[in-house]
Design brief:
The protein is an alpha/beta fold. The strands form 2 sheets. Strands 2-1-3-4-5-11 form a 6-stranded parallel β-sheet, covered by helices on one side. Helix 3 packs across helix 5. It is elongated and about 80 Å long.
């Protein structure tokens, strides 16, 4: 008989024991650990006590799943470390799950966007798209025409477009919509627009500013902005309407701004003051940045807010409340706008035809 060493015998015994003697509690733990390393959608469905399609819809933020069920599924998925395979999801749905965002670079000198509200709006859109599990693609300044849009769409770069600021691009946007490009626009809708628009009530904003000036007894109004833009034209119309409704003899002057930086607004204010014998006692500007610039220029000319001149801006950017003096303005909420833009575009991509809409527009009274 062949003998083996004591050490070899002990090693063989350990191997046999490890293979056949596993307490039940340890077996369960091993299985659980294995499940945790490779959790599938079927596992989440079983653990959440729902069907696989429901899990898929919940993870895709589908409106077909109610909030309670969605939260439950997401909680179970998070607890067990389940992560969505975004690439597989895109292939199944034949979508990129990417939304292209086009900003109105051409309305700004050398493509430099200096209006803080546009970045607030971009942040609102980005957050809303994230809530819908969509990626964001920011279009370059030279990719802002109908041909570029169609190319991005046809090459699978994006499923649709959110256009932040229609500017002077209405004709291009009409062409895109007519060609079937899914898009939604931040701006002001023309009566015959063939695309969906989300924006503030610009006419109401102008009217609120005008009524505020009338209540203060002001008699000489100044509107600052480029009325070739539909939004600004509507704001001036609202201001003019408030003058007409007042029944008072009120003068309305204009300063045309074709560049939207603080420096351009300040220079325009200085030129205006140099050429005028009388200084207006009420100034309504197309945005808050321009209001701040005009306040500074008027102060240099010896006219202070609010004693000599009342000022109303537009947008209610974060800096408005901390400016000196704190700026009275018309608020439009960028987070509400972002949610609405994202939701409407996703409906368009799904084949629906949502209506244009306006967000809440309100006067925020401060010190100017």
């Amino acid at each position: 008989m062949k003998c083996i060493s004591r050490n070899a015998f002990q090693l063989a015994l350990k191997s046999v024991s490890a293979a056949v003697i596993v307490p039940a509690r340890h077996e369960k733990k091993l299985l659980n650990d294995k499940e945790k390393r490779a959790v599938t959608m079927a596992d989440i469905a079983r653990l959440a006590n729902v069907s696989k399609p429901t899990v898929s819809r919940a993870l895709s933020n589908s409106p077909l799943v109610n909030d309670k069920t969605r939260r439950h599924v997401l909680s179970v998925a998070a607890e067990h470390g389940y992560a969505i395979n975004r690439n597989a999801q895109k292939l199944r749905h034949k979508r990129t799950n990417t939304i292209a965002v086009s900003m109105d670079f051409r309305s700004h000198r050398e493509n430099r966007i200096s209006d803080p509200f546009m970045f607030e709006l971009l942040a609102g859109v980005s957050e809303a798209l994230g809530d819908h599990n969509q990626d964001l693609l920011l279009c370059a300044p030279n990719h802002n025409d109908a041909t570029a849009f169609r190319q991005i769409l046809n090459e699978g770069g994006a499923d649709g477009f959110i256009v932040l600021g229609q500017g002077h691009r209405e004709s291009m946007l009409r062409d895109c919509a007519a060609a079937g490009t899914p898009l939604v626009v931040w701006g002001a809708a023309a009566p015959d627009a063939n695309y969906c628009v989300v924006g503030s009530d610009n006419f109401l904003g102008g009217r609120l500013a005008g009524e505020h000036f009338v209540r203060q007894g002001r008699r000489h109004f100044l509107f600052v902005g480029d009325t070739s833009f539909r939004e600004m034209h509507q704001r001036r119309q609202g201001l003019k309407h408030a003058i007409g409704e007042s029944g008072r003899d009120i003068v309305l002057d204009d300063v045309e701004l074709h560049s939207f930086s603080y420096e351009s607004a300040f220079d325009a204010a200085v030129r205006y003051l140099d050429g005028e014998e009388t200084i207006p006692d009420a100034v309504f500007t197309w945005n808050d940045t321009a209001a701040m610039a005009f306040i500074a220029a008027f102060r240099n000319a010896g006219a202070n807010a609010p004693d000599d001149v009342s000022f109303v801006g537009y947008n209610d950017i974060p800096e408005a409340r901390y400016f000196h003096p704190p700026l009275t303005t018309i608020r439009q909420n960028p987070w509400q706008a972002g949610r609405m833009l994202a939701a409407k575009l996703l409906r368009i991509i799904d084949g629906e035809t949502p209506r244009s809409a306006t967000i809440r527009t309100e006067l925020i009274l401060r010190s100017t």
